[in-house]
Amino acid sequence: MAGTAEMVCITLLLYVNGEVQSHVGYHEMVDCLREKRVAEKTHKGDEPHRYTCEKRLVEVGKDENGKEYIIRLLDEHDHHGHGDHDHGSHTQKLGG
């Protein structure tokens, strides 16, 4: 794919019912952990969920302003033993 790259990124992941629902990349672990605390305090919803900061292999692109964002998770790493194929997950711009 033109304009994309693979990299290891510190990623804030939201797992809902054991599946990744959203992910946001950060350049520094401290930024990820800060956002994790905010997300845990403001999370709405009754379904089983958890937030975690992990180093993940991701595909990264750049928007029209040159800001990097995660296109998708490339690794199969998952603490629940399920393959993580990025089904229905939501991506956001890299923070930090």
Can you characterise this structure?
A hairpin with a 2-residue loop joins strand 1 (5-16) and strand 2. It is built from 1 helix and 5 strands; from the N terminus they run ββαβββ. The chain is mainly beta and 96 residues long. It has one domain. It has a 5-stranded mixed β-sheet with strand order 4-3-1-2-5, covered by helices on one side. The protein starts with a strand and ends in a 5-residue tail after the last strand. The chain has one helix at 29-42; strands at 5-16, 19-26, 49-62, 68-73, 90-91.
Key attributes of the depicted protein:
96 residues, mainly beta, five-stranded mixed β-sheet, globular
Low-confidence stretches: 78-91
Q: Measured on Cα atoms, how large is the radius of gyration?
A: 13 Å
Put simply, the count of helices is 1
SSE series: EEHEEE
> What structural class results from the helix and strand content?
mainly beta
Silhouette: globular
| First-residue to last-residue Cα separation | 25 Å
Task: Name the average pLDDT.
Answer: 83
Q: Strand fraction band?
A: 35-45%
Helical residue percent band: 10-25%
Number of strands: 5
> Please, how many domains?
1
Main sheet properties: 5 strands, mixed
Strand order of the largest sheet: 4-3-1-2-5
